[in-house]
Amino acid sequence: MPPRTLASLAHALSAASDLNAALVAMGEALAEVDREASFALFDFDTRRQMLRERLMPSGSSVTRARVDTTFDHLPGKVRAQLQAGGQFAELEEQSDEIARLLGLEHVLQEEGLLALRGIRTDGTLSAVIALYEPRRFFGTRVVERFAPYVALFELTYLRYAEREARNEAVRTLEDVTQRVHGEYVKHLKSLEQALAIARNTPPDSHGDFSPERIVSLEAEAARAKEEARRATRRADAVEQQVTAAVGQLEQAHVELHRRSDVLRQRTRTLYLLERVLALDANTTDPKQLADGLLALVGDDMQAQRCSLMLSVPGTQQLYIAAAKGLTPDVAEGRRVRIGQGVAGKVALSREPLLVTDVRQAAGHPLLGDEHFTSGSFISFPLVYRDELLGVLNLTNRVQRGIFVEEDVERVRLLALVISLVGSHAALPERLLESIGVR
């Protein structure tokens, strides 16, 4: 089944055995976004400053073609953006001209737009991504929707480049070692043969192997051994350099893995935001909407206990709109005065509260609750256009047990979307009426 979401594409790219498989996965993902758009990867020769080869997914395979286009043919501003990497450079009115230059005639449409993005390896440009899409006057551009997918692919490409660099370093070391050893063996063998002939030949036979000649050959053999020893030392130095380079590559791999984890978390957040917006678009029941919003945040943050509290219009109170894992005596609709308790103080200050350990949380009333099993929680205000919508509470994390600052930043984005959706749907007023809070 072709990738349909960022999460499934990330899985497909991580499982890809080589660059061709990764390109096929990108082609399938792009087809889900827009079947009329095209995606290609160009290999860049840094030494010759040329785009050498085009790799383009076609169904379940990848087609390769020589391009041999010099980098100078691209506009100066576009070249600078490609050298910097990280963002797409728009060709606008030059799209069709540059597309023909890159050998993309077979994907040209009546009116299309071309965008290029550079991939940097070890601080230099190593590849260029091309995305060609039909020109449309309405809707979001394909390059905007597909940019997160390309960011995932770039991490995969860097992983392959790192592996290829490591293999190339090993091959270079093996070649140098074998060449030095071969030259040493060949030279030493010839000297040994000459020395043996000299020792077994009578001095008066031809006069070529006098005692002086034998001493000279022995000295030359000693020099050859010394040169071989120096060559071995040079080979050892090369090996040390390769080992250091491999160490740097391993460190780069660790950093790449860290960035991949960060990107995976952001992909997960984007997926949840998509679900929030879909829930808002497809749900008219305020109770179902509140439960769905809370479930999305609770599942994402792995909180066994969470609650969504909304403001009571015209009062200084909050009421429990949706909850999970609360004590049996706490019913939905229960009111809390703003300024009292954890949620009330957060609503009053409109600043998020993060507690990471039990000692820090000792003064909070939540610790008196038998269902509060950890000393870490997040209480986050829901504010939209300077209006307090409510408070989101998360406690009892499943795996790591504690919340950290990074979790607050993730909740911040989700809370902003919940505030937007809740305000747009007039959720506090509608839900207040439906559950009959008095």
Describe the fold and architecture:
This protein is of the alpha+beta class. It folds into three domains: 34-139; 164-267; 285-435, GAF domain (Beta-Lactamase), CATH 3.30.450. The protein is 53% helix and 21% strand. It is built from eleven helices and twelve strands. The chain has helices at residues 6-15, 19-33, 76-84, 95-101, 142-200, 211-282, 286-301, 341-349, 358-361, 405-424, 427-435, and strands at 38-45, 50-58, 61-70, 89-90, 112-121, 124-134, 303-311, 317-324, 335-337, 353-355, 377-384, 387-397. The strands form two sheets. Strands 3-2-1-6-5-4 form a six-stranded antiparallel β-sheet, sandwiched between helices. A six-stranded antiparallel β-sheet has the order 9-8-7-12-11-10, sandwiched between helices. A hairpin with a 2-residue loop joins strand 2 (50-58) and strand 3 (61-70). It is elongated, with a radius of gyration of 34 Å. The two termini are 51 Å apart. The relative contact order is 0.07.
